[in-house]
Amino acid sequence: MRIGLIAGPWYPIPPTGYGGIELVVDALARGFARAGHEVLLAAPADSTCPVTQLPGMRTSEPDLVGFTSSELSHVINAYAGMDGMVDLVHDHTLAGPLYRGRPEGLPVVTTLHSDLNPSYTAVYGAAARDTTLIAISRSQVSTALADRVAAVIPHGMEVAAVPVGQGQGGYACFLGRMCPDKGVVEAITMARLAGIPLRIAAKMREPAEVQYFHDVVEPMLRPDVEFLGEVGGDDKYELLGAAVALLNPIQWMEPFGLVMIEAMATGTPVVATRMGSAPEIVDDGVTGYLGSSPEELAGFLIRASDLDRPTVRAEAEDRFSTERMVDDHLALYARLIGVASGR
């Protein structure tokens, strides 16, 4: 199978720091190649993913995150370059499903990476009927577009490449974006109620993120609450692996919390709010705990070190591996290519 993958224009594949979608695209590209398929990746030119990359793409543009012109011009170049080169395209951009200049008859799949609030629902609802939609959790499509989704495929990752930690650091950690939805303030409250030190690693590049940090989070920092900045790569897994628990008190209907499976891959249990995809990822009482209030979650944080870390890791290997994610995608691709060819 010849598979085209289109990533966004803003961060390289794989990302050097924060970048959930970019990590997923990287895992898919590597997994498809290992499975013996030809992969053509349209991504920023400074990407280092070890598959064939479409030439002529621009380097990453982190300062233009969210700019329609940046994404749309990237999409136009990607489809033009893939014309006649692939059997199917999996587009991970938002603009791609609406782009009408793509090669006629080319099967196109797109993943719903966002929560389906009214604006995103309108975009995906307007996507061409020849664009196949993939959801990343059942929760994501519980209120919209369920009739348009061809498959629910949870994210996976290279679990085998992640070192197992022992929770020896004696701290809890928070990993995410510096914004209210991710629950960093709630994580600080939980850790203090539990009497456990907290280390915070967060993406803080955009003006709103910087302002939120200075106005809300920075005044809450103390010797027992440490802000590390943005952490990626090996440093991220070292931070997660040494933590007694990952705190993920999300305050929104997050469609899929990749950080939760990253923590589980290191053997670290997750303490999270019972929102969005969290109940589909965390096996309550086995790989972590789910609750509602900071007080309830603080009690779970105290108990998290009693959970069996090898079991947490084994669950990540079984449910959230790249191999499982790749197999699920390939099964869908095969059906779509068969339909397109009339088989």
**SSE string, helix = H, strand = E?**
EHEEHEEHEEEHEHEHEHEHEHHH
Using the CA coordinates, give the radius of gyration.
20 Å
Low-confidence stretches: none
Tell me the number of helical segments per DSSP (H or I, 4 or more residues long). 11
Q: How many E-type strands?
A: 13
Span between termini? 15 Å
Strand content: 15-25%
Mean pLDDT: 94
Q: How are the strands ordered across the major sheet?
A: 3-2-1-4-5-6-7
Pairing-aware structural class of the strands and helices? alpha/beta
Globally, the shape reads globular
Helix fraction, binned, reads 25-40%
SSE inventory with pairings:
Blueprint: E1 2-6, H1 20-34, E2 38-42, E3 52-53, H2 68-82, E4 88-91, E5 108-111, H3 118-125, E6 131-135, E7 149-152, E8 171-177, H4 184-194, E9 198-203, H5 207-217, E10 225-229, H6 233-242, E11 243-248, H7 258-265, E12 270-273, H8 278-281, E13 288-291, H9 294-304, H10 309-319, H11 322-340
Helix pairs in contact: 1-11, 4-9, 7-10
Features:
343 residues
What report would you give on this structure?
With 343 residues, the chain is of the alpha/beta class. Helices cover 36% and strands 18% of the residues. It has a 7-stranded parallel beta sheet. Strand 9, helix 5 (207-217) and strand 10 (225-229) form a beta-alpha-beta unit. It is globular. The model has no long low-confidence stretch (mean pLDDT 94).
